[in-house]
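Exercise 7. Predict the joint structure of the components listed below.
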Amino acid sequence: MEIIGDVTLWEFRGNALHLTTSHANMRIAQYNVSTFRVQACKTGETFQETSYACPEMPASQEMRLTDLGGKLVAETSFLRLIIQKKPFRLRFETLAGDVLSEDDPGLGIIWEDREVTNYKTLQPGERFFGLGEKTGPLDRAGKQYRNWNTDAYAYGQNTDPLYVSCPFYMGMSHGNMYGIFLHNHWETVFNFGAANDRFSFFQAKGGQLDYFFFGGPKPADILRDYTALTGRIKLPPMWSLGFQQCRYSYYPDTEVLRVAQTFREKNIPADVIYLDIHYMQDYKVFTWHDEKFPDPESLIEKLKALNFKVVVILDPGVKIEKDYPVYEEGLARDVFVKYPDGKPYSGAAWPGWCHFPDFTDAAVRLWWGDHVAGLVKQGVNGFWNDMNEPAVWGHHTPNLVGFALEGKTGTHKEAHNIYGMQMSRATKEGAEKVLDGERTFILTRATFSGGQRDSAVWTGDNHATDEHLMLGARLVNSLGLSGFPFTGNDVGGFTGDAARGLYRRWIAHAAFHPLMRAHSMINSRQAEPWSFGEEDLEVARNYISLRYQLLPHLYSLLFEATQNGIPPVRSLLFYYHDEWKIFTEAFENQFLLGQHLMICPVESDAKLARVYLPEGEWYQFLNDATQTGPAEHLTEIQRDTIPIYVKAGAILPLQNTIHHVDEPNDGLLRLHLYFGAEGSYTLYEDDGHTRANESNAFAKRRIDLKADTVHMSGVEGDYKSRFTKVRFYLHGASFSKGNSGGQGIEILKEDFRFLNAISNFDPYEDYPDTAKVVVGLGYLELPLSGNPLTVQLS
Ligand code: GLC
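Solution:
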């Protein structure tokens, strides 16, 4: 065991503070006012410089440091770091002197052989969140977790680890929030006070101690800083936000067409159909089954005519089979991972015995990408990367298998957790090469911190049970808190047969998740929206339609994620971390889609739901009844609804129901305004399928809601909005005469005064019928141009 020891020397090299202790070299750097990096390596070693998680590491900044004899103090305008010299210990605190996180005084940083651990004093009542795809409660205090990407088929409520590793968490101590990202992709362990009352720790089984500290103060600030390092999603194609239907597996080609056709016949909006492993010949990657799918191009054409996009599964294992071109070529090009004696590693997966491409080698990524490009040329629109933990039957890839690691070389122990992420990267890069500026969609099962740049994530092989419906909501919440914005669960449950009522509940919830994909296991009951009877079909159609109406909102939220890393689905922690009730397990499943729209997951047989309304005024989405928080609220639920609330101050942009994203909307932007508090919103549009948005082809406008005015800024960007009219729906507006209990209301034309409407437009003259009346809601309709628009209501 080696303990870090005392600081014997310190100096600046460039902006970074270098410290020498009796056993180690330390490097501390400041990246912005709320981000520090701490690196430690044993004497004689050099600091690791390469990174999969942060390929574009920003430059560090100058640090303001004071030597106070026994300690060094680095202070930004926001955060203080105190470096104790004897022995070396760190303490991060707010400028007011509240501890955010501090090393355990007796333990600090310790090496045991190759394993390095940083022990932090457990603060009174300290809470922990994040770590991505982790089961259990969202508040992780008292628990320990391991990061080792794992094929966790039919995982349980507390199974750990699952498929994704994300060694990044948020802590809350003394009411303040901070974040820590352990920048190490070896197997890692996080203890949040499990089986001890003294410390939390993070530990890496190999590599170096290298972590970033984020000072907060709120989850959104921490995520902004974390994703400034690990990267942000680029806007996915709009079609990937539509409804996606999957099955293990739809075959042959006629069956795929039948499913797609049925969506259209039954008037259920949908955009994507998946091909699972049976589309391949003997599960061989980059092949098509010659009987089941004899003419893939023609199938894809027919699906295209139905406005369906096609996503195919790609597993990493390449079947060992003489004369199979991908295998032969792989051998010839030396793309497979090998044992130290040079023999390729063989592991068994769906195709039988396989070799595995080394995605940590740029040349192999190119090779793989060329094959992906071949599928793109055949018309495939998106790719589903599965089994990329990597999964093998038996679950244990031998640790001595060698990987290139970009020329550095190393073993499976070091490459395991980033394998899936590098496969997604290779897939995306390969597709993009031939897409000519069109966007693609990559969905992955395994990935690592930073993987949000390349792919969406689904939470693997869940179960068709209510427990999994709830767990799924928490997993998406936790992934969002960990920098993954584009996520979802297999709607309806992958394994097992959904009991009556489960599917309809699940689809209602999933309508509000960024990824809405229904998927089910071979030999389980069929799980399309029409497979559960007429009532479920009706519910599914309603919620999928609502999803399509909400696309302008969802897309604007994804745009926000591209800018600051904040996910569309936000756990209550994002806005209400000072309300202790949100940490009650029953309320941890609740989530906000954006800032104001709150979804409260409920089980399929629940007739009553207990929900938590944080501070503020909340409208019930379906009938506009209001309640004031903070409060626990018991609400009755019907079989076809779930509790959804909208907070006063909300601005929700909706469109009419379209049946796929290529169907033009009717040009009318439905802007739902929830009065009672001020609010603002950024509405974002672009063509939804090319990268032209990166060079100004977007339409962005800010909308502000005040007590009696709504203001839309002029449009920023060159894209011509799909909306030519706007209809303001006025929820809870006291100036809506006669608004009592959702009865019919009357809006008199005189009630609207236009301050700065579109130039030369006189609504009274030009649009005598502008102010209209609908039952339960008042709305006002106006033409929409790119100019600023202010409406005052009195
Ligand atoms: C894995 C995937 C599942 C897929 C199946 C067959 O279990 O997680 O989604 O359907 O393999 O490819």
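Discussion. Residues 735-777 have pLDDT under 50 and may be disordered.
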